[in-house]
Amino acid sequence: MKEVSKILRKTDTKKRLSVPIRFLKSLPPFKLGSHAVEFEATDEKGEPWAFQCSTRKRGPYRKPVLTTGWVAFVKSKKLQIGDKVRFVKYKNRATATISYKVRAEKEIKIFGAIFGYAPI
Q1: What ranges do the domains of the chain cover?
Q2: pLDDT tens, 17-32?
């Protein structure tokens, strides 16, 4: 199991989710010459969400971002700046199939201080 989580910033809630480059290792392989790959992740209710992860076409730093499907997920979960999202990759040992889960967590503040995060 591999996991990547991120606390959302303004751009993450409005346009795209930038993810750490190590996230690429968890995704299906990119086709030769392609700079994008699609994958599906299920949320806490078991609903599937289709996402596309793309990288820059040029340059030394690939800068992966989630584009397609991301804004719809943000709106559906009513995510805001400061909330957290987690992607988890699972491998079924018996069948060797790979699956992904996506979890959204709302920021909890008490008297203006961040106390933690609660699953949605």
Answers
A1: 2-119
A2: 999 888 888 888 888 7
